[in-house]
Amino acid sequence: MEWYRQSINNTIEKLSSNLDTGLSNNEAEERLKKYGLNELEEKGKSSIWSKIAAQFKDFLVLILIGASIISMAVGEVTDSIVIIAIVIINATLGIIQEGKAEKSLEALKKMASPNAKVIRGGEKSIVPANTLVPGDIVLIEAGDIIPADLRLLESSNLKIEEASLTGESVPVEKNAEAVLNEEVSLGDRENTAYMNTIVTYGRGKGIVVGTGESTEMGKIATMLQVFEDDTTPLQKKLDQLGKYLGLGCLVICGLVFLIGILQGRKVLDMFMVAISLAVAAIPEGLPAIVTIVLALGMNKMVKKHAIVKKLSAVETLGSTTVICSDKTGTLTQNEMTVVKVFTGSNSIDITGKGYEPSGEFVVNNKKIEPLENRELKLLLSIANLCNDATLDYSQEDEIYKIIGDPTEGSLVTLAEKGGLKKSVLNENYPRINEIPFDSDRKMMTTFHENFIDGKIVSFTKGAPDIVLSKCNNIYLNGKEEPLTEELKKTIMDTNSDFSKSALRVLAFGFKTYDSMPNQVDSETIEKNMTFVGLVGMIDPPRNEAIESIKTCKKAGIKTVMITGDYKETAFAIASDLGIAENMDQVMVGEELNNISDEELKEKVKNIKVYARVSPQHKVRIVEALKSNGEITAMTGDGVNDAPALKKSDIGVSMGITGTDVAKNTAEVILTDDNFASIVSAVKEGRIIYSNIRKFVFFLLSCNIGEILIIFLSILFNLPIPLLPIQLLWLNLITDSFPALALGVEKGESDIMEMSPRDPNEPILDKNMITGISVQSIAITLATMLAYLWGLKHYGTNDLIIPRTIAFTTLISAELIRAFSSRSETHTLFEIGFFTNRTLIYAILVSFSLLLVVLYIPPIQRIFKTYPIGFKDWSIVLRFCIIPIIAGELNKLILKKAKN
Asked: What global pTM score does this model have?
């Protein structure tokens, strides 16, 4: 039911209630049984067992478990234990890093108003908000949190701040008498109030039309629950890579087993060979290294004001192609600021942003002193005295805050910038009476003593056209002069210019009296006034956001602004930010309602600004972008942003102004609410992905080299050169330290000038496949030559020495070629040999561990190695440099082919 389209009488009738007496207590109890509690139900959380089970669904993990079982069956207990230990460690890391349950609905519950003032059985009472039912009559006043969705029945100067739900920064004026005949967006429903929004001014009465899941907040909660977590680009690619490796492993294992049987080898021996191949094919350390590198990236991002809650989100940021940003509090400061003043003789620019009371008054590029200009001083005085807001400095947060309406707050800040403190003015010219603001006449008037020549004065502020129509004089040159038609035109033209710049404009006037009038009402007082001036205010863009958007453009990332503001305001701000160039790039919520998902899919390619949108609209926009293959980040701070944060590839919430709902839904939280921090996070994400490619290249070329070594030895009827336990040591220990060091490489200097990579591009692209092929062949050649030399000099009766030589050559080759793996395109001479100290330390650690395996007797027995001498080392060192030479030559050839 669209209650905003119903009249007050129809609403009361349909809900079987009574305006004066409300529901009876018995009826309220019956309805509570029917509709349930006015709260949001939480989706059941995954049990610890289901989380553990999820860690063992990966194809590579299943193959490893199978290899462990076979090893145990054929008596290789050590191998079996090591493999199972790997699986358990990886599963534990996964659960620790991603085991946090969603807290979005808990935060929504915390936001709920604990109590509500209602009329039941003809009496006013306070009841728990969760016991409200449709038909209840609720009383609301300034400071209250709306406890349920209400169709307003009465409204007196009522304003409600709906930013967390609609994204609109200015409190909305409500009018209970209005009946809206057409479908309108949430932000335009002036006769309704929504759960968890805040009353900032006035009072009212409403009838409950929605509770719990049927409220607008409930719809958001439902949307959050039905969205499944999409797998990230990195997860998809690693899963795909794992399946290819696993399937390839099974095929090669089967082929080798068949060849071995045809050669007359023992079945048990071939089982062991198959296990060797399985161990060689699977990069066992890859999942753990990816986890650790992402975790290191998370720590880096914390220093840059971005908390990443989910490991996979680190990489996803790097692949972002579109950032959908909520306007209020994200691209703008969410602090109304006066930027223009017109006094009838001057148009004045005001510097400074937000509620910080510092700034300059500038006319024609020249600074002026406000208190030396009589018209300006009077305007500032009216702005400060005809005002219910106060400016407060928070010692704890070290920032200025407004208590009251943000629009009035901007006027207090303006006056204090000019040197007029509210506390001093209130003491010198106390308010003795007032005519409160109401939405019908759109004005507010206050009375003060002794302001002008000891007389009583009334100060009025309000909508420019209305205030001007009530004036017949203008304050110029320190005195009142007739307001001519020419001056009126100048004032209205100025008002129009301000409005076209997306400024919210207010006008100011005054009237003097010898004594306090007997009759104080709008008809008597608010006429024959003297016009003083106009002020224009806006929620200003963040300077750092403007620079960040420029950086995004260079990086090939499209920035889209999504807001609850009107079309013209949205475009003006988007234009200032550098997001939009023309009105054709702006779409409003009503247009979204009238097009299909397929049409929207095409529209989103060109639209850069969405105005007057609902939470459902935001989700549709994100879905349309994703359907076009975009990797979409959504930023926001309000409850209204939560569904889109959840649906996007990467949700980014503001840490300071963000609601708990937004923070708990998002994968990334910005601790400084700075849009620029998103760009830093994107840059870090790109670096991390680049580094992941480097160590994937490093690990896979070794694994494929191992497969070739085992395969060729079987093909040419040679003894197996490497044992499963040796391969495990190589894959888990020797390779892991250099791979981790590659994961902390500094990014390329021009990484934010590159276009986002194709989301469908696999980790293994053509260049990497070429590089892996070259390196694998080089590794195989180096190891097999060393092994054949060992077989020739030590024979085949005792394979321990030839195998140790092969093992040592392979490890040494891996450690030396790690230097070459630091860049896919730049040679070592270009990037420098010693510019990654972490890699040097990692290589030293891995080499030291190799010496332990070779020369410590108890370890020798486990790994079946031999303490080789200087002669053997000379052969190892001769062959182990082949892969690094091949890698560097391959870079030069690829670079030459590109040019």
From this structure: 0.67
Tokens of 802: 């030839």
Give CA–CA dist 140/174, Å, rounded: 12
Region 399-407: mean pLDDT is 86
Which tokens go with 196?
Answer: 């968890």
CA atoms within 13 A on the CB side of 190: 17
Tokens at 41, concatenated: 């139900």
Residue linked to tokens 């209005």:
178
Which residues are CB-contacts of 574 (< 8 A; sequence separation ≥ 6)? 561, 580, 585, 586, 608, 609
Residue 63's pLDDT is 63
Amino acid at site 190: E
CA distance 753 to 745: 18
Residue 311: predicted pLDDT: 64
Using DSSP's 3-state secondary structure scheme, residue 626 falls into helix
Q: How far are the Cα atoms of 93, 182, 230, 684, 756 from residue 320, in angstroms, in the given order?
A: 26, 38, 15, 12, 7
pLDDT computed for residue 250 by the predictor: 73
Task: Give per-residue pLDDT as tens, 592-640.
Answer: 988 999 999 999 999 999 998 876 788 899 999 999 989 999 887 766 6
Q: CA-to-CA distance for 526 and 462, rounded, in angstroms?
A: 11
Model confidence band, residue 55 (pLDDT cutoffs 50, 70, 90):
low
Q: Which of 58, 326, 660, 673 is catalytic?
A: 326
User: Comparing 224-233, 447-456, 840-849, which segment has the lowest mean pLDDT?
Assistant: 224-233
Query: By three-state DSSP, how is residue 242 classified?
Result: helix
**CA distances from residue 277 to 199, 288, 713, 734, 885 in whole angstroms, order as listed:** 69, 21, 12, 18, 27
pLDDT of 106 above 50: no
Active site residue 149: no
Helix/strand/coil percentages in the chain, nearest 5: 50, 20, 30
Residue 765, burial from CB neighbour count under 10 angstroms (0-12, 13-18, 19+): middle
Extended beta strands in 107-179, E state: 115-120, 123-128, 137-141, 149-161, 172-173
Length of the chain: 899
DSSP for 696-725, please give it: HHHHHHHHHHHHHHHHHHHHTTPPPSS-HH
Chain-centroid distance of CA 25 in Å reads 46
Please, what are the domains in the chain?
3-42+106-226 (2.70.150.10), 240-304+682-747+760-898 (1.20.1110.10), 306-332+542-673 (3.40.50.1000), 337-538 (3.40.1110.10)
Average the pLDDT over 522-539 and give the result.
94
For residue range 251-269, what is the model confidence (pLDDT) as tens digits?
877 887 788 888 887 777 7
Average pLDDT, the chain: 84
